[in-house]
Backbone:
């Protein structure tokens, strides 16, 4: 049992390097069980994810998210650090550091008393919350995460833009207006043809006839008791007039 | 009869072209070396053209939408006119054509009015551009064309 546990531990720690090595069949089987789904994997660096750009209103709070992907299990020595570079400046200052299970926030810089750690290192989340934004907070925030022994990685940056009024994206309202009007048009046309279809099927008791077609029946209630020997020409003219009236009513 | 038909068709094509040019050309307002709205804000500085996107405000997007809708409706009116010309029975009215054309003229009017009212006052923008004038010219033509289609009846 202990041997199996030790083999599992070794396989797990060295799953990066085991690929391609000739080993015993048992080790190969254990490794393949452990690295299910990881087909032809190579040792990849740690990959850090943040947003690309964040828009916020003056005076509001914003949560900058940072998470990472690593082939190794999350170690206890995982570290997160955030640095800030103001717009137009070339220097960046460090504003947040999480290490050894403790978060260290900025207590001297521009974010003094405004930062809060809202991440969950156990779940690979190193997000921070910045409160009460100001126009001076425009800039680039860079998150760097390390998951020992997986430390090779590229930090990821998110740009913060603080607005007085959040601008609406180009084309949103345009597309919405066009979509609504065209949708209404399609709806009206569909309803029109549906009514015509239903009238043709004599579901409705409307005395409506189509162009060029002579419909002798129709509601007798609207026209009153019609004598059976009516000339069809008079009836067609009367029904056409009624149809135009009903059209004008609809429109 | 043929002349009336050709005249009406020509008027419709002219209106369509006016609407398309007015929508697509980015020259609703102009200043010295500058033309802006609806889509781009272009400046000619020392021989070169510098363009950036027009402002994303809600009223500009509404004007864009209304102008595009008027082009679409005018085009649909043309299609409906040609269809009803060849497929309708004698004595029928060009119903859909008239409706679409009148709706197109209403949209152009709304768009031009919104633009006139909401245009910001800037010193560098001195006068209205040609696309704005074309929109206002297209509106009465479109309305007249729609009214013609209401009274027009197919006789041959």
Residues:
């Amino acid at each position: 049992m202990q041997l199996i546990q030790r083999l599992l531990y070794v396989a797990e720690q060295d799953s990066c390097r085991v690929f391609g090595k000739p080993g015993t069949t048992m080790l190969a089987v254990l490794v393949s069980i452990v690295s299910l789904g990881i087909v032809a994997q190579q040792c990849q660096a740690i990959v850090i994810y943040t947003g690309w750009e964040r828009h916020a209103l003056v005076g509001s709070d914003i949560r900058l998210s940072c998470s990472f992907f690593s082939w190794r299990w999350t170690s206890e020595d995982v570290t997160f650090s955030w640095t800030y570079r103001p717009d137009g400046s070339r220097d960046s200052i460090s504003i947040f550091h999480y290490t050894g299970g403790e978060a260290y926030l900025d207590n001297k810089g521009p974010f003094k008393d405004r930062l809060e750690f809202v991440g969950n290192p156990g779940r690979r989340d190193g997000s921070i919350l910045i409160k009460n934004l100001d126009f001076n907070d425009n800039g680039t925030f860079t998150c760097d995460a390390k998951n020992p022994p997986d430390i090779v990685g590229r930090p990821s940056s998110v740009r913060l833009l603080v607005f007085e009024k959040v601008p609406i994206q180009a084309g949103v309202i345009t597309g919405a207006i066009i979509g609504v009007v065209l949708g209404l048009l399609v709806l009206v046309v569909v309803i029109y043809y549906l009514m015509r279809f239903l009238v043709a099927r004599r579901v409705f008791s409307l005395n409506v006839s189509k162009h060029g077609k002579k419909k002798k029946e129709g509601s007798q209630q609207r026209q009153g008791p019609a004598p059976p020997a009516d000339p069809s020409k008079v009836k067609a003219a009367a029904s056409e007039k009624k149809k135009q009236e009903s059209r004008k009513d609809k429109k | 009869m043929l002349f009336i038909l050709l005249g009406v068709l020509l008027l419709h094509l002219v209106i369509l072209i006016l609407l398309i040019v007015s929508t697509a050309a980015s020259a609703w307002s102009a200043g010295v070396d500058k033309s802006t709205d609806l889509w781009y804000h272009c400046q000619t500085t020392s021989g070169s053209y510098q363009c950036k996107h027009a402002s994303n405000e809600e009223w500009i997007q509404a004007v864009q939408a209304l102008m595009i809708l008027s082009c679409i409706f005018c085009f649909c009116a043309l299609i409906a006119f040609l269809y009803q010309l060849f497929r309708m029975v004698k004595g029928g009215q060009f119903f859909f054509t008239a409706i679409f054309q009148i709706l197109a003229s209403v949209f152009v009017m709304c768009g031009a009015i919104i633009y006139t009212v909401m245009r910001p006052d800037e010193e560098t923008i001195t006068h209205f551009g040609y696309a704005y004038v074309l929109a206002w010219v297209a509106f009465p033509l479109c309305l007249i064309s729609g009214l013609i289609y209401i009274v027009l009846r197919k006789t041959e």
User: Anything to note?
Assistant: The helical segments of chain B are 2-24, 58-87, 95-118, 130-151. The interface with chain A takes residues 53, 56-58, 61-62, 64-66, 68-69, 72, 88-89, 92, 95, 99 of chain B (CB under 8 Å).
